[in-house]
Amino acid sequence: MSLNCNEINLSLSELDLEGSFIQDIVQPGFDTLALYTYKSSTAKTVLICTAQKSTRINETRRKIPKNEKPLRFMEFLKSRIRGAKIVSCRQLGLERIIKLELTHGDESYIMYIRLWSNAGNIILCDSNKKILDSMFRRPGKDEVTGGIYEEPDFENDELSQNKNTGNSKQKTFPVRDFEELRAEYEASPNSTYKKFEELSFNEKLDLFYSEHAETLSREALLEKAEKWFNEHHTKLLSALSKLEEKKKQFELAPQKKHYGDLIMSFASEMRKDSNFIECVDYETKETVRIKVDPKKSAHENAQFYYESYKKEVSGFEQLEQDIQLTKDKIARLEKEYEAMKTESNPVRIEQMLRKDSKPKQQEKKTHPGLDYTVDGWYILVGRDANENDELLRRHVRGSDMWFHTRDCPGGYVFVKYRAGKTIPLDIMLYAGNLAVYYSKARKAGKADLYYTQVKYLRRAKNGPKGLVLPTQEKNLNIVLDQKILAKLDALRQEQEGL
User: Fold this and answer.
1) Which end of the chain has less neighbouring CB within 10 Å, N or C?
2) pLDDT for position 248
3) Which SS3 state, helix, strand or coil, does residue 463 take?
4) 382 contacts 369 by C-beta, under 8 angstroms
5) Taking the CA of residue 233 as centre, how many other CA atoms within 13 Å lie in the half-sphere pointing to its CB?
6) Which of 376, 151, 333, 324 minimizes the C-alpha distance to 231?
């Protein structure tokens, strides 16, 4: 439930923002903004919410967590009004629009805070009401940079005309007393500090909206969290079930090899007009029927079963790794959900649910290629000549270790230097596996590597892009280890939050 016009006036009177300075600005979500103000040795955190059915402005004592990535509007406000003084603060008539007049050095600004339930917005203008930017850019309402903000004509508003009568506005829009919160509050530890009737209107607002509002309320957010958890948990359990079912099929792989042996042993029993061969299994002494292709020879049919056996045996190990990865994802999901359920701050729960709506592939990376953090060691991987060259030029230093396949094109792998630490063997094996995997030697499954510190690399004169000549190099022979690759893949997914 959003604040009505009288509740906004009462909240503003308690906030007493005129003469305050805006020390900092935090935007924890797309529709929420917090102003950290200071006046007469008193600091206040003013929370402004423009979410549907929960538009409000009130002081909060709750910690406002920062968003994972700074949001556009917050960064803009910081560049313009951080450190600004609030010269005046008032509601325009009964329109649920707050007008803040600000000064910052020689600059003057006007901030309009519109607390309409279905069209809430925060708009910053210059002294001539020219829009500089807004929380929500709405071209249809001309709420975009360069537009002119038109204040509503509240002088002709019927309720505004009756605002001094003490009748219409008080009866139509009464100030809530939140008496329904009394029992809940008195049962909480906070009741030992202040009685319910001693709470300010802002304190009651903060209590109500943190527990009962439809948006940014703990109860509502936990319902969303449960729905989010059930949806993802069900998908992962379904995927795990399919993998385990496939594993059961793969466990029958030895039987296929045995069928191949039986076909070769009873090749004379094959008939060109039958899709099966019947024979006595020399292990069980029972008659068995094996499906065959009558157009192929006994050797070709046996070879088919042998190849199926090899594929399933090789895939069995990878399948077990996939099963473990899925179990790890389920465990991480359950851990995240438990963290949401125990989190008391609703703003933080909203952030945990939302995380970042921007797809991972659209994020601007600070470096090319891939990166992994393994047991505190940072590994960078270039996958082509361009990435190799860029990493070498701008992202590694002389003491970092360089890995590359010998006499075989491939990516560069760097292990970042740690002061006073020697790279352990298992980290070298991780780096070596990555070097082989991102090279032409991947199909062979093994390769010789050389490694040395970056300071011992010399660029080849007139050579192709990224080509270097190493000195003081050492040799390393690597056979691709699927367990190591699977662990690296799991680490990467975990680090990216997948």
Assistant:
1) C
2) 80
3) coil
4) yes
5) 13
6) 333
Pairing of strands 42-49, 107-114: unpaired
Q: Is 394 helix (H, G, I), strand (E, B) or coil?
A: helix
CA distance 385 to 374: 25
The pTM score is 0.50
In a domain, 56, yes or no: yes
The string of pLDDT tens digits covering residues 331-386 is 888 998 898 888 877 777 777 776 643 444 444 456 788 988 888 889 999 998 89
3-state secondary structure of 495: helix
Average pLDDT over residues 457-470: 86
Q: How many CB atoms lie within 10 A of CB 245?
A: 10
Q: Are 275 and 254 in contact (CB under 8 A)?
A: no
- Cβ atoms of residues 196 and 186 within 8 Å: yes
Domain endpoint, select from 172, 198, 227: 172
Q: How many residues does the chain have?
A: 498
Measured between alpha carbons, how far apart are the two ends of the chain, in Å?
35
Count of structural domains within the chain: 2
What dihedral do alpha carbons 117, 118, 124, 129 form, nearest 10°? -100
For residue 456, being part of any structural domain is answered with: yes
Q: Are 353 and 225 in contact (CB under 8 A)?
A: yes
Domain for residue 218, yes or no? Answer: no
Q: 209: pLDDT confidence band, cut at 50, 70 and 90?
A: confident
Count Cβ atoms within 10 A of the Cβ of residue 234 and give its class: 0-12 exposed, 13-18 middle, 19 or more buried: exposed
Domain boundary (172, 194, 229) is at: 172
Cα 351 to Cα 354: distance, rounded to the nearest angstrom: 5
Q: State the DSSP string of 184-243.
A: HHHTSGGGGTS-GGGS-HHHHHHHHHHHT-SSS-HHHHHHHHHHHHHHHHHHHHHHHHHH
Amino acid (one-letter) located at 400? D
Domain assignment of residue 436, given as a range: 360-496
**If DSSP states are collapsed to H, E and C, what string results for 331-392?**
HHHHHHHHHHHHCCCHHHHHHHHHCCCCCHHHCCCCCCCEEEEECCEEEEECCCHHHHHHHH
pLDDT tens-place string over residues 69-104? 888 999 999 999 999 999 999 999 888 999 999 999
374 in Cβ contact with 425 (< 8 Å): no
Here the tokens at position 5 are 């016009």
Residue 113's CATH number? 2.30.310.10
Contact of 309 with 256, CB cutoff 8 Å? yes
Cα–Cα distances in angstroms (integers) from residue 93 to residues 6, 33, 159, 162, 421, in the given order: 10, 23, 9, 11, 68
Distance of CA 295 to the CA centre of its chain: 55
Q: Which residues pair with 44 in a beta bridge?
A: 37
The label of the residue with tokens 């921007």 reads 358
